[in-house]
Prior knowledge:
- The protein has one domain (7-268): Nitrilase/N-carbamoyl-D-aminoacid amidohydrolase, CATH 3.60.110.
- Helix content is 26%, strand content 24%.
- The protein contains 6 helices and 15 strands.
- A 6-stranded mixed sheet has the order 8-9-10-11-14-15, covered by helices on one side. Strands 1, 2, 3, 4 and 7 form a 5-stranded mixed sheet that branches.
- Helix 1 (7-23) packs parallel to helix 3 (64-76).
Amino acid sequence: MNSLGEVAPNLARADDLLREAARRGAKLAVLPENFALMGAHETDKLHAVEVEVEADGAGNGHTPIQDALAEAARRHGLWIAAGTIPLKSPEADRVYSALCVYDAHGARVARYNKIHLFDVGLPDSREAYRESATFMPGDNAPVVIDSPVGRLGLSICYDLRFPELYRQLSAAGAEVIVAPSAFTYTTGTAHWHILTRARAIENLATVIAPNQAGHHASGRRTYGHSLICDSWGQITSEARSDANEVVIADIDRERAARIREGFPSLSHRRLG
């Protein structure tokens, strides 16, 4: 997606893409990080923050993002791993960056709060980011759930640089790992394909990595190249432009199981 600076048009755009994914036979759809808002200012997310809707759908306030996702999952018959949503934290000036998963009936079945925050300055550049100014890091354990495409592990963007998280996901049985992202153009050009493929290879897991693409209201440019990488590290589908589009691939669970059986590197580990 190339997400805009207002929530409503982004929700409409996401719904169009989800409809197309369902039409093409998808069972699981994954939206990129910040799919509902890439604002002109980092503090814009504080104005879009929502109170968490309980798994049974019982909300405590105005929750247009969560309501739209639950309704889309029901209407399209899709499991949706919903990029990230700004959810209320204990601090008024910071929110959680939450990845919520909905089943095909619209029930929220998992939530993961981003634990690694992008507080960096890019080498040889004045480009710098400080997510911790408006995001609160999660303190939750790694999240792995059952899904129609196998055991599903949850991660977000900058997490890709922390292989220890993915080891914990694979140790919990993850066969497929989602990594909704908003990689900058600079970091994406240097590291996007390397990191996504490495996480797939070392964990013998499919990695689904939708990414923001193009220019946004803040002037920030993101890298795009949303991709799906199989458990042997081969990219099976990839976006090639900054357009809003659906990237789709089959997950061959039988082949993945054969790879793990014949190439059992996960069971060869000698360190924690």
